Structures are given as structure tokens and as C-alpha cells.
Amino acid sequence: MPPLTPRPQLTSLLANSVLDRLQRLRIRPASRRTSRSRGEHLSGKGGTSTEFCDYRDYVPGDDTRFVDWNIFARLHRPYLKQFHKEEERHVVLLIDASASMKFEGKLDLGKQLAAAFGVLGLLNNERVSVYASHQANDSPDRLPPCRGRASMRNVFQFIESIDGRGDAPLDQAAERLLRHHSGRGVCVILSDFLTFGDLKRGFNLLHSAGLEPLGIQILSPREIDPDLASDLRLVDSETQETLDISTSSDLMNLYQEYRQGLERELALLCQRRAGRFLGISSEMPVETVLFDQLRRRGWIE
Amino acid sequence: MSWGGFQSLSHLWLAALIAPLVLFYFLKLKRPRAEVPSLVLWRQVLQDQRVNSPFQKFKRNLLLLLQLLLLSLLILAALKPFWRGGPGKERRLPVLLDCSASMGALDKPGGLSRLGEAKRRVREMIDGLASDQELCLVSFDNTARRRTGFTNNKRLLRDALDQIEVEDVTSDLEQALRLVQAIGRSEPFDEALLFSDGNFPPRVNFDLSFKLNYQKLAPAGPNIGITALSAQRAATGGWDVFVQIEGSADAEGNASVELTQDGGSMGNERITLARARAQRMVFQVKGDHAASLRVQLTPDGFDSLAADNTAYLDLPQNRDLRVFVPKSMISYRLALQGIAGIQLFPQNTDDTASGQFDLVMSDRPQDLSLTAQTRLSVGFIPDELQRFIETGTNGSTVVDWRRDAPVLQHVELADLAVLDQPRFTANAGEGDLENLGYEVLIHGQRGPLLVRKQDSASTRFALLFHSDHSTLPYRVGFPIFVANVVQIALQQAGLAEANADRTGVLPPLTLAPTHRYEIQAPEQALEPVTADEHGIVSGVRASRVGLYSISENGVTRQKLGASLLSPTETALGSVDQIQFNERLQVGAAAAVKSDRPLWPPLLLGGLGLLAVEWWFFQRKPGGWK
User: Fold this and answer.
1) Per the domain annotation, does A4 fall within a domain?
2) What are the C-alpha distances in Å from B463 to residues B365, B368, B450, B491?
């Protein structure tokens, strides 16, 4: 019997074991947001799927093929059987690839999560598109919507090629994303959300376009708990602007207050737009995020 | 009254350092750069109202404020601020330090001496000396000594202060004031400071020309000491040694007194001393040879002054008094025969004599050339007085006489008839005799009848009328007069009594003429002296209680003891007010508070601030975990 050769690694982003576990999972949106094109997600409206939904009175003009003849035989009144409509859902992955994401593995974790969400979408026959925002005035790099297991390699390649640079505000990235995108579904935003842009506007744009925002804020450990001392000149990695601070316990407490305030604001922005929010540290393993954090919160099932 | 001032106001230029400090702070030349992903949160934090509140702004610039505060403290320290202690600040201030024996008294067992306390206070003054102030240190005991001129040199003043030590002698404030007054003629001042325990006479014969600030030191503890030590020739041929023990006002208790002769114990007595009482003891000592006595007092309890616990006495060998009286002076010889301990010359029929005598009584001028310490000339006028006194024949009577003179004690001279008439020559008077060192003891109608000339080595009496030409030999007082002369001769020869030598100056020493000697004083270096052509060494300072050894080429020739023996020093008395001439009184003033320098606490504060600053900016933000 020939010796077993190890299976080649599909992508450098995720281990094969993670990919295997992802095959048994799917994205669980908070609301049904699907495109009218036929897909595998049941629509709230009646449809032609094989899954029974309800009965209703027959009205002239209805397709007589959906009359339940067994009931008509018993009640002598025609009732029409209704079935769920299975529609297609979009999974839009928006990766903040600005320079600020290069710190302490934030972009790496973001790319891993994007790959995982892409795999979930493709394996569930959803249309997956990936956007990576860099410069403020440029359109984000994008992978056009694709579907099916065969597109997995394209998705991996695109995500792997993303590098961190630029200073794109998130609202501008959302606006430019929607110039290319059509269709309803979920939009997974992987960012540190440390942007000078108007976050509310970006979420509004996505919501109005029929995308359920799933915000994942990835912060580095030093952003969560800065270890700064004495007088410092802080340099913005994106804009190279400087800011002089004199650290003190009060200032650091205020920073924590603002950071937690931003988390609450992001959570509120997502919830008000039928979305969800999760803040994680970049040092957290992707397996923990996927199979512990997201699963326990019902993002995937 | 101002609160104080600055001693080095010229260092104010250091305040200019504030400008570069602020400049460098705002240039932030050394602010380290730290790249962060985004400034979004930091900008929001810094725009927060709480951060921009005045207190937070203050905290934000805390480092600058701390540095400014630190620099300000250092500049202030460099300006040498001081807190004024006294009511005013004299530019020149002489400081008189009493270093007499009583200043060595301790306040408690193992405590500080009065001089130590005074030196401590003067050292404080030196430490707080302003740049425009000058001190002049003067120490005084029985003499005054200028230790430094007016100077601002603190090291010089401290060194001079350290050299001041207690001397076992009494104090003489008058001398000290005269010295200070002399200093003031060349370098004027308005006020002088006197540190003393007040152990000096309350009246000082001095015209105070400056303000005297009398800083009376706190009293010392109880003290018992020997205040007198003397010996008298006993009838048995030996010596009766008298020791007097006294104490300070608050001293009482038991003590032991031990007498040693040439190192061997001769007696040991226990005494109990009550307050304000004296104890007197008598020891018998044989007089067959010369002896050196030492009396040691050992109190049972605390004794604040040790210098008065030891006394020394040198006793000569007892012998008969050698007296020369010509055989023609029968009345004198008869009177002398009744006195014990006299060896009368001439003993044979020969009326001439040679050798040394203790007493010469003669009516022959040539006999005055005999060597004797006490001489009485009878019936002629000494050569040096002949210019002022002549002898008449009209007779004379006694007008008055010095009843307190030892030679005339218990001698009644009223109604004495004298056939001779000593009288002043024309234009001569008693003042002329005084100029020659003579003192008139018996005044006649026209001139003196008995005169005395006394110096350290001899005593000379001149009876200017012949006693055979008067009723004197027939009077009861005559043998008394002769006995008094004998007694004076005994004392002059050191055969009647001996007194312990006091500290201060050693008595004149009779040594080999023109020889060089070395005197070893207790706890002091050798002092070379040279005897004069008569072999006399005098004026040797004896400032310490103890034995003084006189040696020649390393061979000890003589030993002499000096003792304190001062009731005033032992009593540790203290004068609250000093009475000067013209009814001027100076009372003890409140303690002078020297200017307190403020720069040490400022410097310490600066260092403390530096430590706080280091801790504040090195600590982990949010506290240590």
C-alpha cells in the first residue's frame, strides 16, 4: 500500500484543518437579505422551492399546478400551496488595507478572516466579492463576485496579494465599493475602524444598499493597552502626522474610555442597521475567532 | 524688621537659565518618536474637555513646571537666603567667649560644658554669617586674647573657635572689654556679644563705649571643689595642713578627701557637705623634710567641674629662724629670747656676722648689707631717704599708725614718747617716699616714724627713731612688735605658713642664673625659659591645674603644683547684671538667634523634587501591575 502523502496546503492564509471545519459551517445573517436571482437562501417571499411555506386561498389567475388537490377533495374549495423562494445572497468582504492595519498582525488576521468568510460564502453557493481599500481617492482593489468552489483559488490569491498601505477612510471605501456592487447580502468589514472618516455614513451606505454590516474591529494589543511612558511624539502611520503627548495615568484612562466608546458606537451603528459587531485583538488565533467567538455569537452556524 | 534676605544676591543672574529651559522644553529636542497605527483616538483624547481643563493643562506641562520649580529652588539656594534670627544685623560684631575654669562645668553627666554650649551657639552664628558681616573672636580668662580679627572667613573663624579651650583660671571681664575697646578704635563697631556663665564680679571698672549683648549661658550642674589649701607651722615642729571644701549653691552630698605626700597616702577623710556650707579639715604632716602634698577630692555623685578637685602644696623643711641682732640692742634680743624657734646671732662675744639670715634687726647701717629677706633698721635714716627725711632733736609723738599693718597688730602706740624727731626736709612729703616704694606705717608730728618697703623678694622696715631713745622698749607692745616682725620674717622665709599656688602665673622660681630651662605644663607643650642674672624665673603662665616640671637639659630640677583654689569658680556663681561705671547696668539678654540659612532645605527640596519627578515620569502609566 503506497504511503499517504500529505495533502497540499491550499492557501497560506488558513490551514487545511480550518478549511475542513469551515465546510460544515455557513454564515448566519441576522436578517434575510438576498438578491432576486435564484440562489440557495430562502426568501421571505413565496417562491418555487421544494420547501413548503403556507396555504392561501386560490384566486383566479393563479397557477393551478400549485393547488392542493387533496384538500380540495376534502373541503371542495381550492387552496393554493405556497413554497419558500430561494434567492441568491452576496457576501461582500471589505478589508481595510490601509497602513494602520500593518501593525502587529492586524492585516494578517483580517486577511485570514476574509478568506474564511470567502470560503463560507463560496461553499454555500453565495456570490463572494472582495474589496481591499488603500488610498483615499482610489477605488479599492476588488475581486468581482464569484461563486462556487472553483472560485476559491481566485479568492485566496486575491486576498493573499493584499498589502497594507494608504490612508483610505472607511466611508470612502464603502462608497467606492458600492459603485461596483449590486445585490443584497452581508458585508463583512474587517478594519480597525481608526479612521478620520464618517463611520455613520459608510454604514448607512451599506445598509441602504441592502448589505447587512458585519463589523469586525481588529486592534493590536498595544492599541488595546498602550504601553507608553513620558513625553512622546506620536507619528500617524498613515498620514505621518505627529502629535505630542505627555502620558499620565489620567490620559491613559481617558484613552481607554475613548477606545471603549468607539467600540460601543460601532456596535450601535451595526445593530441599528440590522448588523452585528465584534472587537478582537490581533493576537487572537483565527481558529478562536471563527470557532469560538463567531460561532458562539451566532455569526456562523 | 525684615524677614531676612539673601547673602549672595549676585547669583540672581542664574535666573536667566529659565529662558533656555523653557526654550529647550518647547523645542522638545529630545522627545522620542513613537509610531502608532492611527492618531484618531489620541486626537479625540487630547481634544477632550477634561484634558484641556486648567488642571489637566497643568498636568500636561507638569514636567516643565517641575523643571521650573526645580531650577527656581536651585537658584534660590544659590542666592543663600536666610531667615533673620536677631533683631538686627551688625556688620562688625566682636564675640567675647569666656573660657575660665567655670566654663568647663558640665550641665549633666557626660553632657556639654558651658564653653561647649557657647561654642555651639557661636558656630551657628558663623554658619549663618552673611557676606557683609564680620566676626572677631576674643577669648578671655584672666587675660584676654584676640583669636581672629574681623573676618568673614568661616573656615578661619571655625578653626579659631575650635582652638579655644577651657583654662583653669578665673575670668577677668575687664581685660576682655579693654581689649575689645582697643580693637574698636581701629575697626569701629556698635555692639559686642558676650558669651559667659556670668562667673565674674558684678561690678566692672570700665566705661562701656559700645553696646554689650550679654548672653548668659544656662547654669551648670552641682559642683564641689577645694577652695583653699594651706599649711601652718605647728608648735610641734610639724605642719598643720588646712583643706577647705566648698560647693555650688545646689551642691550637697558626700565626698572623700585624700591627702598624699610624695605619692604616699597620708590620710583619707569622708565629708558630708550641706548646701551653702563649707567643710574645713586639718591634716598633720611632719616637717622634718620638704614635702609635696596633693589633695584629691572625690565626690560620690555628679560633679560638674573636675578642675577644682585636685590641689597641690609644697612644704619647706622646718628649721629655726636665723635672726641677727647686734648685741648692743639688748631690748630686742631679750624680746627674741622669749620666742621659740629662733636661732639668734651673734651667739658669741664677737659682734660681727656673716652668712644668710632670715631677719636682720640692727641700728648699724653697715649691717643692712647682710643677706636677709626681712630687715629692720633702727635709729637711722636709710640712704635713699636722707634727701627727704632728717632727724631733729626736739622729740616727737605718734600722731597715727596703721593698725591693720601686720607689723603693728596689737601694738598700742598712743602716748609713746620719742626723743628723736624724724621730719621731712623742706618741700618733701609722703608722696616722695611713695615714689621710692615706701609706705608710712607710723606718722609722727613732723614726719614718719616707721616706714616699710616691700617687694616680692624682701621686706624692709625702717624705724626712723632709735627705740632706746623712746619709751617703746618699756611698753607692753614692744615684745608684740618684735614678735610681729619675727612672724613677718617667718612668712617671708616660708617657715610660718605655706599656701598652695594658684593657677594663673607660677610664683617666681629661684634657679641657676642665666641657665636655660624647659617647663612642662600639664597637657601642654614644653615652654623654654631663661633665668635672669639673679636666677629668677618669673611670669610663667600656669593655666592648667597640675604639676609643672622644670627641667634643664632633660633633667628635672624642680616640680611645682598649681591649683585652681578659687571659691568663685567652684561656687559656679553667676551674675545676671553687670554693673559698669556711671551706674550703667547690662543685664543678661535673650539668647541671640543667629540668622538661619535657608539654602540647605531648599537644596534638599530640589533633590526631593527631582526624585518625585523621576518617579512620576518613570512609573508605568496606569499604575504598577
Assistant:
1) no
2) 12, 13, 5, 20
